[in-house]
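Worked example

This section walks through a single chain of length 120. The input is the sequence exactly as stored; nothing has been trimmed or padded.
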Amino acid sequence: MENILVVDDEESVRDSLQRYLSRRNYCVELAENGKEALEKCKKKNYDIILSDHRMPEMSGPQLFEQVKEFSPLPKLIMMSALLPENFPIKFEYYHIIPKPVDFKNICNILQIPNADQLVK
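Given that input, the structure is written out below as tokens.
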């Protein structure tokens, strides 16, 4: 089971991603900002970090830059509402997807079935 850290300052986004990914057999942990996520990453290695772009205290890009300095590089996915329409886009070491989150984008990046093939 892969470990995924979901980082977003909106509780509803964190909760919906946790439900969705947990049902697809991911072990999901949550952080409400980049600073909290960084502290979690110092204590544990995650396979995937799914983070909002703009958050108080530390942005998603700042988090990703700091994590890659000390941790084996996980798969990184950034979510943002302030982006053009051609998504998802793969950057040098992370993907970026638009908000509101379309679970199909996450499924495509993580290469998991999008249909309701859920872990029971």
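What to look for: The domain at 3-110 is CATH 3.40.50.2300 (Rossmann fold).
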